[in-house]
Specification:
Radius of gyration: 26 Å
Number of helices: 20
Helix content: 40-55%
Oligomer: single chain
Strand order of the largest sheet: 8-14-13-11-9-10
Number of strands: 14
Shape: globular
């Protein structure tokens, strides 16, 4: 494997030279050759790919038909000869959500999701490096890269791994939270590196942490856990000298329009209209928990959360008695804790507008696998709702309605339509929004994830917990991610520093855990406290 990060360069230079050559030939031939000139000029704005060179070769051959001469035929032959320089074996589709997360990645918004496995003792370095190599070799998405041009972006699968596994594996002597979380928050250059990396590091409280970081343009929460499962499974097999099991997650990347086409024109039109109407719900001020909302975020931090198994079981009884889900209770506890914290600080009572991610595979009829099938349910709670003992029932009704397929896919339609504009224009709009303190997006992000029962865990070490961390933009500054597997519940409160102080995060976490414990007492004991 070559360690060169510029493995694409000869092919990209070749396609650009081919476009310029076609422009030059068209100008030289004159007459009807203006069409060839247009094709060549447009190619310079498009993503370099094999098919583009074929188009340019065909255009050169057509020029020869218009005005027979040897240069067009030679040019067509040269363009076809450049094709073997292409490093890709094929393309991996980018749906609208993939493009959105790729373009949103920037200095203040790292679009990475982190999957932690906390162990009491370290893993074996050689076996882990071999496991990284195995994933890199056998999973197409793991060796993919992105090309970008003026008019768009595209993702390709490399024919073979082009980076050494050691470049994707960091064996750190310091915790991932050290030095302003520099290890976790490091940017990913998806044009030169695959969309994932692995960190093995000690933990501040003792023990060790395996961290799989995946760029959000590659997979959502379910896809990330599938990649974690494959990595750990390969580690176990290679460590024990067992043959590798044929267990590969299938890439599920499909474009949204292909999934929604059976709904017909009328159904598609309703979704597009809903996209434009979503802007109306964004108007008006929403509550924020930042200590300094105008501060420029420099890094992320997190605080561990834990709900004992007994509390989790009692929450099930409470949720059944009240006709809501445990997820509704957890979201309600977040609202109550956040509202109480603001009231204690003497801040004005405002609505909370929170995003609750949901897996849309079942709604779209997509099998389990990799890809991005993420819906964002926009859950709103007014000050009156927050003071009501029926908050959880109100939230439950709202979430149930939002999970209807036509409602749930609105976020994906919204993102897909936005990313149809040229990448530079879209990025400029996002950066302008990030730099505007008044352009507040939403209050919190609350996500609950069920840990698959068959999720592989490292053999030979004691595993303490599995955690998932998402991506936070400059607004909101708080995110709560809970993962449960039927026993104890673990999670993280993630926040942006220096927008939020560590003391504020700890206080919020304590209030949330206390609120969950209060709810677990039984029906009728969920009145607002404050």
């Amino acid at each position: 494997m070559s360690s060169s990060s510029f493995f694409q360069t000869p092919f990209v230079v070749g396609t650009r030279a081919a476009g310029l050559l076609l422009c030059g030939l068209s100008a030289w031939l004159g007459g009807w050759a203006w069409l060839g000139f247009a094709v060549g000029a447009l190619s310079l704005l498009r993503v370099p790919r094999r098919g583009l060179l074929v188009e340019l070769a065909v255009a050169s051959a057509l020029l020869w038909l218009v005005m027979p001469a040897w240069p067009p035929l030679v040019a067509a032959a040269l363009m076809l000869l450049v094709i073997p320089l292409a490093p890709e074996s094929g393309a991996l589709r980018l749906n609208g959500l993939d493009r959105y997360f790729y373009l949103q990645d920037g200095p203040g918004s790292r679009m990475n999701s982190h999957h932690f496995v906390d162990t009491a003792t370290p893993l074996e370095r050689e076996s882990l490096e071999r496991a990284v190599a195995a994933v890199l070799s056998e999973l197409p998405l793991a060796r993919s890269f992105v090309r970008e041009a003026t008019l768009g972006v595209a993702r390709f699968v490399a024919r073979r791994p082009w980076v050494e596994p050691s470049r994707l594996l960091c064996w750190s002597d310091a915790p991932v939270e050290a030095e302003d979380s520099r290890l976790l928050d490091a940017p990913m250059d998806l044009r030169r590196l695959p969309p994932w990396r692995v960190i093995h590091a000690p933990r501040p409280e003792g023990g060790y942490r395996l961290c799989l970081t995946v760029h959000h343009c590659a997979v959502d929460g379910e896809g990330g856990l599938l990649m974690l499962d494959l990595l750990v499974r390969r580690y176990n097999e290679l460590r024990a000298g067992r043959p590798l099991s044929p267990r590969l997650p299938v890439h599920g990347g499909q474009r949204l329009r292909e999934l929604l086409r059976p709904r017909g024109f009328a159904g598609m039109w309703r979704l597009v209209r809903r996209h434009f109407s979503m802007g109306d719900t964004d108007k008006g001020a929403s509550a924020v928990l930042a200590d300094d909302a105008a501060a420029r975020p420099t890094h992320t931090r997190h605080h561990l959360l834990r709900i004992p198994a007994d509390t989790w079981r009692r929450l099930k009884a409470v949720s059944t008695a009240e006709g809501v889900s445990r997820n509704d209770l957890l979201v309600g506890a977040v609202f109550r804790a956040a509202s109480a914290l603001r009231r204690e600080r003497g801040q004005a009572e405002l609505r909370f507008r929170t995003f609750v991610p949901t897996n849309l595979r079942s709604a779209l009829g997509v099998p389990s696998g990799l890809g991005n099938y993420l819906g964002m349910l926009q859950v709103v709670a007014s000050p009156e709702d927050l003071r009501s003992p029926a908050l959880e029932k109100t939230l439950s009704e709202s979430i149930r309605k939002l999970r209807e397929p036509d409602e749930a896919v609105s976020f994906m339609v919204n993102m897909g339509l936005l990313t149809l504009m040229p990448p530079g224009m879209f990025r400029a709009g996002l950066r302008s929004n990030d730099a505007d303190p008044s352009a507040f997006n939403y209050s919190l992000l609350v996500s609950t994830i069920r840990q698959p029962e068959e999720l592989a865990l490292p053999e030979g070490v004691e595993t303490e917990r599995v955690l998932v961390r998402g991506s936070l933009t400059g607004r909101p500054c708080f995110g709560v991610v809970i993962i449960h597997s039927g026993g104890e519940v673990h999670g993280v409160l993630e926040y942006l520093s220096p927008t939020v102080r560590d003391e504020t995060a700890r206080e919020f976490a304590e209030r949330w855990v206390a609120e969950v414990e209060r709810m677990a007492v039984g029906p009728g004991v969920t009145a607002a406290v404050g």
